Amino acid sequence: MRFMILGGAGFIGSAFVRFLNSLGFRPLVFDLFTYSGRIENLLGCNFDLIKGDVKDFNTLHSTISNFKPDIVINFAAESHVDRSIYSPQDFVGTNVLGVINVLEAARRFSFDYVHISTDEVYGDDKCADENSPLSPSSPYSASKAAGDLFVKAYVRTYGIRAVIVRPSNNYGPRQFPEKFIPKAIIRTLLGMHVPVYGDGKAERDWIFVEDTVRIIYDIIKYAEWKGEVYNIPGGQRYSVLDVLKILGEVMGKEMKVRFVSDRPGHDRRYCMVSKLRYNVTPLREGLRRTYEWYLSNKWWWESLIDDRFFREDEPWK
Ligand SMILES: NC(=O)c1ccc[n+]([C@@H]2O[C@H](COP(=O)([O-])OP(=O)(O)OC[C@H]3O[C@@H](n4cnc5c(N)ncnc54)[C@H](O)[C@@H]3O)[C@@H](O)[C@H]2O)c1
Questions:
Q1: Distance from the CA of 230 to the center of ligand 1, in angstroms?
Q2: Residue nearest to atom 28 of ligand 1 (CA)
Q3: Where would one find coiled-coil regions in this protein (predicted)?
Q4: Contact 75, 114 (CB under 8 A)
Q5: Is 140 known to be catalytic?
Q6: Closest residue by CA, ligand 1 atom 12
Q7: Which of 31, 53, 113, 140 is catalytic?
Q8: Residue 32: which of 87, 88, 68, 74 has the closest Cα?
C-alpha cells in the first residue's frame, strides 16, 4: 500500500507516519514546513519527503502523478483557532483552496482520499453525531467546514472516493506549544503562569494522539469511500481547569493559573458521539506520557518559546 501523507511533519501527521512505520510502511510525506511542521517531528522515521504546498496545484499534482499513491491522507492545515482570529485569510488558503487542489487530484488520479476534519465544525453546546448539521464558530472551524463540504460535493458530482474524519481535541508528544496542553506543561516547567481564557470552564473532549492515528488507520480498512463521516471523540470531556488539576498532579507541581479575557467567539463545550467503537488511553495516563515526553525532549521545544503564541496571554490581540 502506497501512502501519501499531506502535512506529515505536523503533530498528528507525524504520529501517523510513526504508526505506519510500525506496520512496515514507508510513506511519502508532502509538507510545506510552516511554523508547526518540523523535520524534528519525523526524527527516526522511515519516509520519503517532498517539500510542497497544497495550495500549489502543479507541485501537488506532479508529486501525485509520479508517486501514484493508493491512499492520500490530508493532515495539512492551518490548525490554530487563535491564529485564525488574527489572520483568517491564511486559513481559507490552505484549509479550503488546498483541499480543492487535493480533490482535483482525486478526480484525475485514482486514489482513496482521507480528509481530516475536526469536531469544531459542529459548533458547541450540543452532542453531535455524524449526521448533525455544521455550525462553525471560528474562522478556523468555518474553513474546515468549507473543506468538508467540498469533499461531499466532489464525491457527489465527480464520484471521487473519499471519507471525512472528525477527531476531537488531540494531545500528546510533538504538539506545537501554542496549543493548551503543551503550553501548560512548558510554561509550568519554566516557572511561568498558565493563561486560562474566560472562567476556565470551557469543556473539550480529549483524545491521545496515538489513539487517533490508530483509529484513522482502522477507518481506512473499513471505509466505504462514499463521502461518509467518521467522528473520533475521545469520550473524555473535561474543562480546562479540570485538565490543569490532573496535569498538576501528574507533574507534581502547582499550576499557576492566570485568568485572561476570553477568546472571541469561544466555544463553551464540544461533544461528539461516534458510530465507531474503540478503546482510548485514559486522560491521566495520556497526560503522564505527554508530560514525560516534554520533560525528556527539552531540545525539541526550547527554540520555540519565543513564539508570540506561546508567550502572550491573549495572542489574537
Ligand atoms: N490537533 C488537534 O487537536 C486536532 C483536532 C481535530 C482535528 N485536527 C485536524 O488535524 C489536522 C492536523 O492537525 P495538527 O494538530 O497535526 O496540525 P499541525 O499544525 O501540527 O500540523 C499541520 C501540518 O500541515 C503543514 N501545512 C500547513 N499548511 C500547509 C500547506 N499549505 N501545504 C502543505 N503542508 C502544510 C504544516 O507544515 C504542518 O506540518 C488538521 O487538519 C486539523 O484541523 C486537529
A1: 18
A2: 77
A3: none
A4: no
A5: yes
A6: 75
A7: 140
A8: 74
The CATH class of the 171-206+236-270+282-311 domain is alpha beta
pLDDT by residue (tens digit) across 294-309? 999 999 999 998 888 8
Count of CA atoms in the C-beta half-sphere (13 A) of 206: 25
**194, amino acid identity:** V
Residues 111 and 131: their CA atoms lie apart, in Å, by 25
196 strand-pairing partners: 259
Cα Rg, the chain, nearest whole Å: 19
**Contact criterion met (CB below 8 Å) for 146 and 95:** yes
Q: Which residues line ligand 1 (CB under 6 A)?
A: 7, 9-13, 31-34, 36-37, 53-55, 75-77, 79, 94, 98, 116, 118, 144, 167, 169-170, 176
Q: What is the CATH number of domain 3-169+207-232?
A: 3.40.50.720
Compute CA distances 193 → 161, 187, 300, 306, 315, whole Å: 47, 6, 21, 16, 15
Ligand 1: which atom is nearest the Cα of residue 95? 41
| Domain boundaries, given as residue ranges, for the chain | 3-169+207-232, 171-206+236-270+282-311
